[in-house]
Amino acid sequence: MNKTILLNNRPNGKPQESDFKFTDSDIPVVNNGEVLLKTKYVSVDPYMRGRMSDAESYIEPFQLNKPINSGIIAEVIESKNDSFTKGDFVSGMLDWKEQQTHNGKDLLKVDADKAPLSAYLGILGMTGLTAYHGLTEIGKPKEGETIVVSGAAGAVGSTVGQIGKILGCRVIGIAGSDEKVDMLKSKYGFDAAINYKTTEDMTKAIADATPKGVDVYYDNVGGTISDAVHANINRFGRIVVCGAISLYNSTSLPTGPRIEPILIKKSVLMQGFIVNNFSDKFPEGMDQLSQWLKAGKLDFSETIVEGFDNIPNAFLDLFEGKNKGKMIVKV
């Protein structure tokens, strides 16, 4: 039988296991022009929480009682498509199914000899491109400037920090445990890191860590952590809004400090983005990330959970901060 994971309910607040439903079906028949894919690695990401709601957004919501999808690495186990052969590995936005057919459109072949397959969902995939293009196209860091990264121990944040160091910047990370703080400094080369869960005054802690102020803030979390960084932003600073995981499960619209006076008085740029905004520059980004990785200038962490049945729990664990780096399920 062939397992599939469907969206069972639209969550109210934090998602629960009951919001997912498992079904079984027969393995599909491959038609001309198609390939049969076997799921190998599944990416779970915070942005998917937004797709579980039916609110208008930059991407279509998941449909109730339909398969959830995300970035997946799959193996071609049968092909009736001239572009693919049995044994190829591919990356694409695919359904949460053990096996599925596909017409091959938008599937990208990946090379297991050049990098671990899971890396194509992380540092050499959307994660790396999000970090690279968000920082370089919006943050535009200059050598000697100070970058602050929230959600710094996550897949995007840890990559942003390393790119900042490659570009000659001072980099400060914000994370949720002493272990993650130590990892940011020892493994990823951050100049300093702050555990927001044990810090009473984040505004002061950020000021102490950034004696010259904050030039670029790469924001993955939003909320009160971002309020504290905004209070330390420099004139002509750039705020890159990549994510807001602290707010994704809110059931009402939270009210925080009004940031407009800071933006005006300090001539600060604040811009949100999605990685597909820079799709025309993906080849450039992929080439640069590959070069840095090959040269040993980039490192990456993965939290790999085993088993198709554990995909929903791996997703839920993102909101508990249980991942170090990229959260991936190995099937």
Supply the CATH architecture of the largest domain.
Answer: 3-Layer(aba) Sandwich
Alpha-carbon Rg, integer: 20 Å
- Low-pLDDT runs of 5+ residues are none
CATH class wording of the largest domain: Alpha Beta
The helicity comes to 10-25%
Q: Helices and strands, in N-to-C order?
A: EEEHEEEEHEHEHEHEHEHEHEHE
Distance between the termini: 15 Å
> What does the average pLDDT come to?
94
What does this structure look like?
The chain is of the alpha/beta class and 331 residues long. It is built from nine helices and 15 strands. It has helices spanning 48-51, 126-139, 155-166, 178-186, 202-209, 223-230, 260-265, 282-294, 311-317, and strands at 2-7, 20-25, 35-43, 69-79, 89-95, 99-102, 108-110, 146-150, 170-175, 192-195, 214-219, 233-241, 269-272, 302-306, 326-330. The strands form three sheets. Strands 3, 4, 5, 6, 7, 14 and 15 form a seven-stranded mixed beta sheet that branches. A six-stranded parallel beta sheet has the order 10-9-8-11-12-13, sandwiched between helices. The two termini are 15 Å apart. Keywords: Oxidoreductase. InterPro entries: ADH-like_C, ADH_N_2, ER, GroES-like_sf, MDR_fam, NAD(P)-bd_dom_sf. Residues 17-329 form the Enoyl reductase (ER) domain.
Which structural traits does this protein have?
9 helices, seven-stranded mixed β-sheet, Quinone Oxidoreductase, Chain A, domain 1, 331 residues, 2 domains, Rossmann fold, six-stranded parallel β-sheet, alpha/beta, single chain
